[in-house]
Specification:
- The protein is an alpha/beta fold and 213 residues long.
- Helices cover 38% and strands 18% of the residues.
- The strands form two sheets. It has a seven-stranded parallel beta sheet, with helices on both faces.
- β5, α5 (124-137) and β6 form a beta-alpha-beta unit.
- The longest helix is centred in the middle third of the chain and has 21 residues, at 83-103.
- Residues 163-167 have low confidence and may be disordered.
């Protein structure tokens, strides 16, 4: 990140990718404040502001100037319980985070989407991700980074059978579809935040997998 004080928002800090990302952001000397709202309290840090509660209710209460905002929110249809509940998280809540970040002055928004995101897709999951990307673009951030990982590898407290099977069969999967570790995604996002290139930039799965774990 540039050698100036940085004010960061991180949504999804208790998730698999978010935990790694939070550690990396807090280790950057130039970062002076990280706002990380979460349902449960995070480990205290002198540069961490951690409002605790439901994110949708916390968003309007957040205050202060932002430079950069990261969003690692995401669920599965199985975990959410229905397509409607999935969309409420992966579209509505993520877009609400983006809107609040824009209101707080963030110049750069970095969001995790998914490989195959396409607003015209017949696959519900991919269509929602594609619609989300469209919604975030409409907010006109000076810099927008979209990460499109395949299956995410990492130590989960939540068991996802599909992802376990996918990891076991990874050797059979073409390169662009191979699983990517959450540490690689976190590294890529931190690097993208440091670059802060103007315009929209998409980190496809192949590019994410080039980063060291």
């Amino acid at each position: 990140m540039p050698h100036t004080p940085k004010h960061v928002l991180l949504a999804g800090a208790t998730g698999l990718t978010g935990e790694h990302l939070l550690d990396r952001i807090l280790s950057v000397p130039a970062v002076s404040r990280v706002i990380a709202p979460s349902r449960r309290a995070l480990t205290e840090h002198p540069h961490l502001v951690n409002p605790v509660g439901e994110l949708a209710q916390l968003l309007p209460t957040l205050s202060g100037k932002l430079d950069t905002a990261f969003c690692c929110l995401g669920t599965t249809i199985r975990a959410a319980g229905s397509q409607e509940a999935f969309r409420a998280v992966d579209y509505d809540l993520v877009l609400a985070v983006a809107q609040r970040a824009r209101e707080m002055g963030a110049r750069h928004f970095l969001v995790i989407s998914a490989l195959g995101a396409d607003a015209q897709s017949r696959v519900f999951y991919n269509r929602v991700k594609g619609e989300l990307e469209q919604g975030v673009r409409a907010l006109a951030f000076p810099s927008l980074t979209i990460a499109r990982p395949s299956l995410l590898e990492g130590d989960r407290s939540e068991v996802r059978p599909g992802e376990i099977l996918g990891a076991k069969l990874a050797f059979l999967v073409p390169g662009r579809w191979k699983p990517v570790h959450v540490r690689q995604v976190a590294r890529a996002l931190v690097q993208a935040a440091a670059d802060e290139r103007v315009g929209e930039h998409v980190l496809e799965n192949v590019e994410l997998r080039r980063f060291a774990r």
